Amino acid sequence: MEGKVTWTVGDAVDYKGFPVDKSTTGGWIRAAQILVIEICERLTTMGVAVNLVTYLTGTMHLHSAASANIVTDFMGTSFLLCLLGGFLADSFLGRYMTIAIFAAVQAVGVGVLAISTALPQLRPPPCDLTTPEKCNQPNGLQIGVFYLSLYLLALGIGGLKSSVSGFGTDQFDEKDEKERIQMTLFFGRFFFFVSTGTLLAVTVLVYIQDEVGRTWAYAICSISTLLALFLFLSGTRRYRYKRSVGSPVVQILQVIAAALRKRKLQLPSTVSFLYEDSAGALRISHTDQFRFLDRAAIVTDEDNENISTTRNPWKLCSVTKVEEVKMMIRLLPIWATTIMFWTTYAQMITFSVEQASTMERSIGSFLIPAGSLTVFFVGAILITLAIYDRIIIPIWKRWKGQHGFTHLQRISIGLFLSTLGMASAAIAEMKRLSVAGRVGAATGKSTLPVSVFLLIPQFFLVGSGEAFIYTGQLDFFITQSPKGMKTMSTGLFLTTLSLGFFVSSLLVSVVKNVTGKNGEGWLASNINKGRLDLFYALLAALSFINMGFFLLCAAWYNPQRSDHDVEMEDVTNGPGEERC
Fold first, then answer.
1. Which whole-number Å values give the CA distances from 144 to 141, 219, 350, in the listed order?
2. CATH assignment of 328-360+369-580?
3. 436 with 448: CB under 8 angstroms?
4. For the chain, N or C: smaller number of CB within 10 Å?
5. pLDDT digits (tens, 9 = 90+) for 464-490
6. What is the CA angle 515-516-521, rounded to 5?
7. CA of 337: how far to CAs of 43, 103, 264, 410, 412, in Å?
8. Burial annotation 392-423 (CB, 10 A radius, 16+ → b, else e)
């Protein structure tokens, strides 16, 4: 009997709901089947996003600012829908079914996008080169089909991103020393797969879009997603499944409801009079912050009358449950001050690509696609991670005795680099505009005699910033949240990406309206007539101010950990930090 128990995983079951056999389920092979889904997700997302602005301006004849907003709204919605996907996975579907359903939705969405680019009836006719100002705008059907395909794709992306990494870690047993190390390595390989998919998107897929046709590129995305789905489904009998524990949103609402119900009660003079039912190892010590919520743990006469029955969590919550909600609240200032980074990131796949489309991109007889300039962005991420892993961590370990920078230090470095990136972008745009003015490229149809490599510093700085801030945010939101709210905290992290894109759309709209009252303003339909450099300078200033607020919030932040969580964090910050 003991031998059998040794080969089972306590908190996992097989596809029939029975205890799993560790020797025949989970592990690297099953994790790899799941990671293939992630490659296709990134291939599709970035393959569509980085070159979409050129399609919207060149084929759909939309304004430059409107095209940029469509792209950022699409990306923002994709990440925002991660919350929906996480809720469905936690409360109803489970991670396996969530991945299967939303992978199919993604394949359908990009398939419809392929059809919309293939049929002439679903796009406006080409412009007359003699009168470019009279280009026809897309009609209701054309723009409707386009939006349908784009937001079906966004729905699929949101559902997948919420569950792929979690289901991958489910294939390893945290209580087994060997598998715990493998799970730590999984995150590094997960990020590698993300980068691989992005790299394929901004090179191969963008080249196919420009030289062969968008229809073929989007069809490749749809077919590859379906093939990855079939590969994923083939592992059904060999996966490990974790039982759903419900959505942590309910617990947060319960604490708030109980505190509001007892808002008129006086808090006891000592914490010992507050209700606590958590096991000793899982208890979290009481803190004095957000004391209003402590009222949820006050035991009233009504609560004592019902002591023989199960406690109603909407009327009485334990101190540990209250402290878990407090821990989530403490994350919010850091959460809010990291949104600005993703606003600057949004410019790398919108206006920066549009800049590249007007510049000299030839290397011999080869013309670099404008969307492929983001390869420098991905390259910066990989180079930065390699330098951090092989050089900075060993030096930091010998000097400070720590495995690299803390999560908050990495976030601050990312914010600083993005600020420099926007300043660099403003300077590069000033140079580009000066060339445009000198050669009289008013129509924007000719290629300006300025090398596209002028844009490399802004791609590299923001890309290096992402390497620090992405790993720092993920580490922060996972390690600083309660154990039962890890999925929610990951979703909270992804909403910073979503809101960053939405803030970009809002900022573009405001700047266009404010500066364009007496003309086209900073963000003109022809960027050679606008002042994109001033827009970048504005972003640099806002990023600098935001970084100051972040440093204040980081100084204020005071984590509260249980003994159990401290042990788990020590495990994570060991191999986990070296991985980054």
1. 5, 20, 22
2. 1.20.1250.20
3. yes
4. N
5. 998 889 888 877 887 787 766 766 777
6. 70
7. 29, 32, 34, 14, 10
8. ebeebeeeeeebbbbbbebbbbbbbbbbbbbb
Structure tokens at 283: 């208890």
pLDDT at 126: 83
Per-residue model confidence as pLDDT tens digits over 56-102: 888 888 887 788 888 888 988 988 888 888 888 877 788 899 999 99
Distance CA 395, CA 439 (A): 50
DSSP-derived secondary structure for 312-341? -TTT---HHHHHHHHHHHHHHHHHHHTHHH
Distance CA 79, CA 76 (A): 5
Superfamily, domain 14-244: MFS general substrate transporter like domains (1.20.1250.20)
Rounded Cα distance, 475 and 111, in Å: 35
Question: H helices of 59-139, where?
Answer: 64-88, 94-118
Q: How large is the angle between the packed helices 319-337 and 456-479, nearest 10 degrees?
A: 170
CB 254, CB 313: distance < 8 Å: yes
Instruction: Please count the residues of the chain.
Output: 580
pTM: 0.76
**What is the C-alpha to C-alpha distance for residues 372 and 361, in angstroms, rounded to an integer?**
10
Which part of the chain is CATH 1.20.1250.20? Answer: 14-244, 328-360+369-580
- Of 134, 68, 126, 131, nearest to 530 by C-alpha is 68
Q: Taking a C-beta distance cutoff of 8 angstroms, is the pair 46, 191 a contact?
A: no
